[in-house]
Amino acid sequence: MRKLPALGALRVFEAAARRLSFKDAAEELSVTPTAVSHQIKHLEQAIGVPLFERTPRKVALTAAGRLLFPTLRDGFDGFERAIEQVRRAQGSQVATLSSTVAFMARRLATRAGSFRDAYPDWTLRLDASNKLVDLDSDADAAIRYGNGRYPGLLVEHLFQDRFAPVCSPRLNIRTPRDLRKATLIHFEWGEGARDDERAVVWRQWLDGAGVQGVDADAGLAFTEELHAVQATIAGQGIGLLSLTLVAEELAAGVLVRPFELSLESFHYDLVCSPRAAARPAAMILREWVARQFGGAQNEELA
C-alpha cells in the first residue's frame, strides 16, 4: 500500500511550484490563496520539511521543493496525457481555443462553423477570457493580443492591429472640422495595457493628424471595448476602434473610415505550450487559425 500525502495537496503544490505564486495557483485551481497556503502547510507537515521559502512579495522553492517538483510535474503531465488518450478512444475529440472576449465576439464566433467543415470529427470549444489561461491544462492554444513576448510558449505571429476613426455613414463626417461637433467614443484599456503607447486613444490620433480645436476627452466613454464598438455601429458617435474588430462592418459599408491615418497598436499571436504542440488538438487549431487569420490575408483587413 502506497504511503502518499493527499493527492489534492500534491496538486496544489505542483501548481504553486510551477507558477511560483500562491495567488496564481489559487486562480488556476479556483480556490482562495488562503486555501492554497493551508494545503501546502499540511503537505509540509506530512513530509516533515519546508517546500517554499516565503517572503512578503514572493515565494521560492526550497531545495526539498526543487527535488519534489519535477517528479510531480511530470506525473501530472502523464495523468493529463493518459486522460486525453482515454477521451480520444471514446470518440470525444475536443479542441479548446482561448482568446480575448472582444476577438471572440467579433472575429472567432462568426467563423466557428468553418472548423466543423474542416474537421467534422472534432468539437471546437471556444473559451473567451481576457486572462492568460494555462495552456498546459485549460486550453490547447490561444490567440493573444499584446506585444508578442510570451516566454516559454511557442508563438506564431498572425497580424498587426491598427486603430482609426470609424463611424456610420449617416453621420456624414468627412473633414477634421466635422470632428468638432461630433461625439467621440472612447473605451478603457485594461490595467496591463493602459500605460503602453500602443494602447491608442483619441489624443494620440488627433495629435498625429494635426487636428486642433477638438476636446480629446469629451464624448461617450465605455469600460468595455465591445460596447464602444456597438455604440459606433449604432451611429452614436465616431469611435477610434480596432480595424480588426470592425473589419466586417467596414467591408459591408455599415461603417466608414473618414480619414486615412491609422495608428499601429498591439498584435495578435497564436500561442501554445511546447508540451502540447504535438497533440492533435493543438496541431488542428494551428492549421485552422492559420487559414482563417494568417498574415497577408488579414493584414488587408487590419
Automatic annotation (TrEMBL):
Fetch the SUPFAM superfamilies from UniProt.
Periplasmic binding protein-like II, Winged helix' DNA-binding domain
Asked if Cytoplasm is a keyword of the record, the answer is no
Matching InterPro entries:
LysR-type_TF_proteobact-type (IPR058163), LysR_HTH_N (IPR000847), LysR_subst-bd (IPR005119), WH-like_DNA-bd_sf (IPR036388), WH_DNA-bd_sf (IPR036390)
Q: Which keywords does this chain's UniProt record carry?
A: DNA-binding, Transcription, Transcription regulation
Gene Ontology molecular function terms on file: DNA-binding transcription factor activity; sequence-specific DNA binding
Q: Which GO terms describe its biological process?
A: DNA-templated transcription
PROSITE patterns xref list: HTH_LYSR
What CDD domains does the database record attribute to this sequence? PBP2_GcdR_TrpI_HvrB_AmpR_like (cd08432)
Q: Which Pfam families match?
A: HTH_1, LysR_substrate
Q: In the UniProt record, does the keyword Coiled coil occur?
A: no
The residue ranges of the HTH lysR-type domain are 5-62
Per the similarity annotation, which family is this?
Answer: Belongs to the LysR transcriptional regulatory family.
Identification of the protein by name: LysR family transcriptional regulator, glycine cleavage system transcriptional activator
